[in-house]
Amino acid sequence: MKKTLIALLFFLLSYTASVAQVESGTFNILLKTMLHETVPTISVSDLSKKKADNIVFLDAREKGEYNVSHLKNAKWIGFEDFDLARVNGIDKNAEVVIYCSIGVRSEKVGEKLMAAGYTNVKNLYGSIFEWVNQGHSVYDLAGKPTPKVHAYNKKWGVWLNEGEKVYE
């Protein structure tokens, strides 16, 4: 029985790693259990190949998290107090990539955007944590690259392997 469980676990980890959209197999397992896939996802790898000028980036974290760092040119829209008025002026057919720390909050806000008629919404799989883990830059409020990343809390911060963790 023990050998069967070990073999099954090895298979699942190998399989998950082979289809994963994030570099860490264990992080991918966590994401697969937490996300409901109600919003189409885009991997960091696929996003990094696109021309960012044509994408609207929306940050679904709290204002303090956004203030520490965010993706270049991202617009803060929040989570707890999200209001559709914050996305007024964004074309409902524009390519929108929404993110948070790992993708759970952004998925929930993405659902609201889709219900409001936005047709091309994607949730960044692994969100800002995976973006930074794969070596991509984040920016401070002055628009300058920063090593700092708000790690949400110590429990979730374990998934952020690169950058300088901030918890304030």
From TrEMBL:
InterPro entries the UniProt entry points to: GlpE_sulfurtransferase, Rhodanese-like_dom, Rhodanese-like_dom_sf
Annotated Rhodanese domain residues: 51-140
Keyword check for Signal: yes
Entry superkingdom: Bacteria
Keywords tagged on the record: Signal
Range of residues in the leader sequence: 1-20
The UniProt record lists the keyword NAD: no
NCBIfam families membership: rhoda_near_glyco
Name listed for the protein in its UniProt record: Rhodanese-like domain-containing protein
